[in-house]
Amino acid sequence: MKMSGGPGSMNIKLSLIIVGAAIAFGTLYYTQNLVNKLQQREQEIVKLYASSLEFIVNTESPNTDLTFIFQNVVQRIDFPLILTDDKDQINSTESGIGYRNISIDPKLNNNEVKRFLDENVKQLSKQHSPIFVKSNGQIIQKIYFGDSDIILQLRYYPYLQILFAVLFLIVAYASFSYVKRSEQGNIWVGMSKETAHQLGTPISSLMGWNEMLRLNYKNQDKVLDISDEVNSDLVRLSKITKRFSKIGSIPELKNNSPYETIEHVINYFQRRLPQLGKNVDITLKGEKDLSVKLNAELFEWVIENLIKNALDAIENKKGEISFFVSSSKKNVEIEVSDNGKGIDHKSRTDIFRPGYSTKRRGWGLGLSLSKRIIEDYHKGKIFVKQSTINEGTTFKIILNKSEIS
What we know:
Blueprint: H1 7-58, H2 67-72, E1 81-85, E2 99-100, H3 110-127, E3 131-135, E4 138-145, H4 149-215, H5 220-246, E5 254-256, H6 258-270, H7 273-276, E6 280-286, E7 292-294, H8 296-313, E8 319-327, E9 331-338, H9 366-377, E10 381-388, E11 392-400
Parallel strand pairs: 6-8
Antiparallel strand pairs: 1-2, 1-4, 3-4, 5-7, 8-9, 9-11, 10-11
């Protein structure tokens, strides 16, 4: 996983756009299909109404019961409708006999109502062709009708939905871009701090060894001892370079003893604690013969970050940092405890976030990298098991056990 965007990021964005467009057009198609079906239903009602009027006109019996027609046809009309003669003249404007579902201002007189309805006839004719009422093959009436409220709502609903979706995507994208830029800034700042943090210990040691060489240049045995320590720090600097070069690539995992790897890191720190001005005991206990799939260089980095964070947390007192290695049926568990100032409950998740820091040094990127190394590269877990303010913190690492080959 790379820090910068690339083809993968572009593919994801393009896929999201395609999926969003498919959903939008799918919604539009489905809604328009419903609208068409409703329009057909309403047109059938108008045709039935026209047939009913033809029946009334052509019936020869004056005592024909028209209750069924009015209850089952006329009462079902819930959309605008205007009845005219063959010359588009409104049959009657009094009591609404010639129209249905048309809102008329009660202050208008008959002439004004007629003009208003004539204008509505023109508008309705643009929506649908009129249905004719015939008698003996001649057009005697016309029925103009429009869409019901539910059709109008359904017609415009998908466009409103798409509009709100686009606005939401714009706001979400702007917010995501801001968060991403902020996070990238935190990562670069954290990387700078972590680089300085990593280089600080060996450089301080080399400066100390250099001073000791100046003081003991005539003592050949002492010079040889110091030379070994200088070489150890140079090896460490080389390791740091390799660690940063592995970020973004898939590391090679081999069967290794976590106990021995931790012991190696502890030995390095114990020889340099006096130079760091720390009065701290670092201890290691537990099972020595356990094996897990490790990249030793990256796992050492995790252990160093945990030790450095513990050293930063221990202030003005006798410090203790303890490692305990144990096993369960399928896992190897490592607990790292200190007697530092502790972590408040709400910050226990944030400490693994890139750029998060509660002090001027440390916790900028170290724990974030540690989490990535353990969880992404080694498929394990790392978390704060427990922490008490002014008493200390315990981190726990869980790795999958493997057989020694």
